[in-house]
Specification:
This protein is about 50% helix and about 10% strand. It is of the alpha/beta class. The protein has three domains: about 10-185, Rossmann fold (3-Layer(aba) Sandwich), CATH 3.40.50; about 190-230; about 230-295 and about 305-340, no CATH class. A six-stranded mixed β-sheet has the order 3-2-4-5-1-6, with helices on both faces. A two-stranded antiparallel sheet has the order 7-8. Helix 13 packs across helix 17 (about 330-340). The chain is globular and about 65 Å long.
Amino acid sequence: MMSIETKFINRELEIEALRKLAYRDFSNVLYIYGPEGCGKTRLLREFINEFDGIGIYIDALERENMESAILLSPLARKAKDMLITLAEQVTGPVGRWLCTEILSLVERISLKVQLQDRGLVIMVDDVTRALGLDEIEHYIKWLYELRWRIAKEYRPKFVLIIATTSEGYSLSRVIRHTYNVANLLWNLNRDASIKLMLQLDPPSMHAIDSVWRLTGGNPRRIIEIATIFQWDIERWLTRLELELRSLVRIIKAEQLVHEVMQLIEDPDILDRQPTHKLERAYRILLESNLMMYSGLMLLSSWIEEDKSKWKLKADEELGIGEYYAWQIPAYKQVLCRLLKG
């Protein structure tokens, strides 16, 4: 989707949080959760590119290209050719295979670069979509056990293992265990979104304001509107309406129109006035990646001194409650129009 490379914007706090967790030898698996297209992949890749230790990034969804599936920090790139030869052993999707061969990657890197007394960071991106919901609990526990095995065998200065997802169903399965800590990464704020849009030749400030109100700062959607749709907002909205029409049919068939409208008006009604029908409506929207739980501590909270900034701030216009949120405002706006039509 992101065919152009824009400047990395407004993630200084998150980069610093990752650095802090790494150097304090954070012992749990860090599970980063956030909307589709909010910038999780870009954040991880930027961190790896500037990391001064041994860094391994794995794109768990990459199917064919080994060079696309793995990114190494500058120090670890001495072992790149050796790792590329691993592709000859792969018979299925390469990203999924790499997810399960992390120890082999570390072993090969150790033949080229000394690991002892150096920092090691391992990042597995989009892991739930690659492995499937049924595997995620077992996999996160396996990562936790792998972290201790690597620490014992190679004696690095520290080991940090990170996994990411935008799949809402996986969260409840993961956060109930003590071997991981889940943090939220959200879309860009308004100022950062404007900086991003100004790189993309916007036709007017009105267009910038409209895209902000529709995307809530989601980088992937901003870039999609600017590049694929050439700032034609109405055409983008029409495409979104067509995509959501089948979901509207399900909502009507399940007789959940009233409950979805309640969630459009106030996502946190699910927390304050829960009912079986509201829960069913939310589960449908969660499975469709339109809504999600937003009550986690933000990733930036690890270095943020101001306690009021530890969680995502509620914003009625953007569809963000204290505990539940729409991934982008356009979803609730389009659904509202379709359900009333």
